[in-house]
Amino acid sequence: MKVLIPSPLFSYTAGKSAVDAYGATLSAVLADLERQFAGIRFRIVDEQERMRPHMRFFINGEQTFDLRQPLHPTDSIQIVQALSGG
Amino acid sequence: MAVKKKKPTALKRKRPAAARAQKSNQPVLVMVATRKGAWFLRSDAARKNWRIEGPHFLGNIINHVVLDPRDGKTLLAAASTGHLGPTLFRSTNGGRTWKEASKPPAFAKAPEGEKGRSVNHTFWLVPCHANEPNAWYAGTSPQGLFRSDDGGDTWHGVSGLNDNLEYRKYMGSEQDGTPDGPKMHSVIVDPRDPKHLYFGMSSGGVHESLDGGKTWSPLVNGMEVVEGFDASNIMFHDPHCVRMCPSNPDRLYQQNHCGIYRLDRPGTQWERVGNNMPKAVGDVGFPMVVHPRDEDTAWVFPMDGQTVWPRTSPNGRPSTYVTKDAGMTWQRLDAGMPREQAWWTVKRQAMTSDAKDPVGLYFGTTSGELWASRDEGKKWSCIARHLPEIYAVEAAVALER
């Protein structure tokens, strides 16, 4: 499935703003992203499996806070950095 | 007046051979970590002219950049952004190229149903003992101690500290720390014994281990806390910066939220030598710098600690202060600095020395200016301005380029 990547993580994806990743849950997709782009997962999710405070996930345009959320092969995932502050 | 030195009885460690001064023809590298990236400044041999390089990691919060003195070319940089999780970058060629650590410091996953801690950022980096090449310690926010044995590529928690429930009480909550998070800092390795360690926590006191971090004990006797709080509660102690004298590892100096202290081991009672500072200036501040070859000489950068704690230069007149008698007396050293209306803040990692003779001193302000002295503080000049908020300044022998 297609995963949109925010610009602060382009250093992991060689500048790509969209990549393909697979998994039955959001957590599994993140594991696949980590397999492809080592180091990317820890920038998004902490060691307690919590989303980092300014990282947000949208599945088919709907925001989710549950990494266990089941996914379908046709889903599209958007990872967003909610930029704030100076 | 000379201070009478106590002979060690309990630790019985020999003093190291006196450190040699850095050669006069060697240039100095100053590494500046800021809220928006890192910059390096290289001097000529006389330290008169400086060339700035950077930015490295533009846009990243860089809390600390440290060069490994054991090989003179490995650099570690503690990085995060305001939004992404923390990481570390490593260079093995003096900063020409960088590679991200494959396993940055992270706490252990908590059992299901328990709220585990997560590393917000790595705050303090220090190479381990000279006989432990490639080994490093890292202090984090919230307070955690981590070790790498492969040059900073992979890190594991020091369980004797991170999993110690008594110490979790000392660490308090995230609300008990500094505004940008409680800190583990001042991780110190005794050059005579790799298993003899110290660290400081803001908040949470100063602590010592004699067994490589398996067990720890507080070292806070004599340290004061904010009026109205109970000094017997370790959590209330707020050391800002602790330094060990390279020429005498039995001597520690400390800049605390509540004063300047000295401790001569094996004694366990800190002495508030900041009481000898001018009353109009006080003894509040963040950094503490010790002379590389003279245990009686140390420098501080006082901040205003009155009423609402502005923590800017008292009366808008910045100055370093030096003691040359182990804290018995202090002298103002402000030649070259603004005489008025300069409301500087210098953070705990943002002042350091080189190893040359005479010693060079360097400090960076939160307003982005880097100041240097090549005569132990007698005269100062600004060597860089318009940088982002400066978090840390380190000096080392510059590599040939």
Give an overview of the whole structure.
- The complex is a heterodimer of chains A (86) and B (401).
- Chain A is α+β, with helices and mostly antiparallel strands and 86 residues long.
- Chain A has one domain (2-81): Beta-grasp domain (Ubiquitin-like (UB roll), Roll).
- In chain A, 19% of the residues lie in helices and 23% in strands.
- In chain A, strands 2-1-5-3-4 form a 5-stranded mixed beta sheet, with no helix packed on it.
- In chain A, a hairpin with a 2-residue loop joins strand 3 (55-59) and strand 4 (62-64).
- The longest helix of chain A has 11 residues, at 26-36.
- Chain B is built from 2 helices and 27 strands.
- Helix content of chain B is 3%, strand content 38%.
- Chain B has helices spanning 159-162, 165-171, and strands at residues 28-34, 37-43, 50-56, 61-67, 75-80, 87-91, 99-100, 121-127, 136-141, 144-148, 156-157, 183-190, 193-202, 205-209, 217-218, 239-245, 248-256, 259-264, 284-290, 298-303, 320-323, 331-333, 351-353, 361-364, 370-373, 381-384, 390-397.
- Mean pLDDT of chain B is 93; it is low at 1-10.
- Chain B has a 4-stranded antiparallel beta sheet with strand order 3-2-1-27, with no helix packed on it. In chain B, strands 4-5-6-7 form a 4-stranded antiparallel beta sheet, with no helix packed on it.
- The A-B interface holds A 8-9, 38-39, 42-50, 52-55, 81-85 and B 81-85, 87, 100, 102, 104, 106-110, 115-119.
